[in-house]
């Protein structure tokens, strides 16, 4: 178990998260707590009480030190994600890109060839909505889309033409996806699965570079 502190105060006066990762299922559980509920260097955490408690539960407690702060890589990885989310914050009149997802009507075999996310924009932030959402100033072409978005769906305005899709060239659905179109077959191969052979083609997609070409079933193209 680990703790993440320094978060915005919730209506129930919670400003920290108690992270517990199940070693069997790898499921992460997040429990909101108050900072004064714990002290990371409190001797109570290293007392005989905690040792006896974990012994009764059939679990193990790992203590960290200043020279070796790592205790549980699974919990620490989850906490790193939470810390990254905590640091994402925008201000009114900031410019941001909005993430959209490429979508294809074909079965994927090569997961490593997954198309990278694309972004539309940039758009002005009008105001903050709650703790983790923002209202954007969208153009008339996106009237069918709700204008409040979670912070993880936004990106700071740092122009990179390889990841930006002109909204005029694609039809954005209400679920913020758009259909990709193949433009060229670059290569061919055969995927052998036991006694079955599946012809594949390497496809270059519109709005994507050659490095992002993916392998698709030939009969789906």
UniProtKB/TrEMBL annotation:
Residues 94-158 form the Tf2-1-like SH3-like domain. InterPro entries: Chromo-like_dom_sf, RNaseH-like_sf, RNaseH_sf, SH3_Tf2-1. The gene is LOC107919355. This is Tf2-1-like SH3-like domain-containing protein. The lineage of its organism: Eukaryota, Viridiplantae, Streptophyta, Embryophyta, Tracheophyta. Pfam families: SH3_Tf2-1 (PF24626). It comes from the Eukaryota. Signal peptide: none annotated. It comes from Gossypium hirsutum (Upland cotton). GO terms for molecular function: nucleic acid binding.
């Amino acid at each position: 178990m680990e703790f993440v502190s320094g978060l915005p105060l919730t209506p129930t006066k919670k400003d920290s998260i108690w992270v517990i990762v199940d070693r069997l299922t790898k499921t992460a559980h997040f429990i909101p707590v108050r900072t004064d509920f714990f002290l990371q260097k409190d001797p109570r955490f290293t007392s005989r009480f905690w040792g006896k408690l974990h012994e009764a539960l059939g679990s193990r407690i790992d203590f960290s030190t200043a020279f070796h702060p790592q205790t549980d890589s699974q919990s620490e990885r989850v906490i790193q994600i939470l810390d990254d989310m905590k640091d994402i914050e925008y201000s009114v009149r900031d410019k941001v890109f909005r993430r959209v997802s490429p979508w294809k009507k074909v079965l994927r075999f090569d997961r490593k060839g997954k198309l990278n996310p694309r972004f539309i924009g940039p758009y002005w932030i009008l105001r903050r909505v709650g703790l983790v959402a923002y209202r954007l100033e969208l153009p008339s072409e996106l009237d069918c889309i709700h204008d409040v978005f979670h912070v993880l769906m936004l990106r700071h305005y740092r122009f990179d033409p390889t990841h930006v899709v002109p909204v005029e060239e694609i039809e954005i659905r209400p679920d913020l996806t758009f259909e990709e179109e193949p433009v060229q077959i670059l290569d061919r191969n055969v995927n052998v699965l036991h006694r079955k052979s599946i012809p594949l083609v390497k496809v270059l997609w519109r709005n994507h570079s050659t490095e992002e070409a993916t392998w698709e079933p030939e009969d789906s193209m």
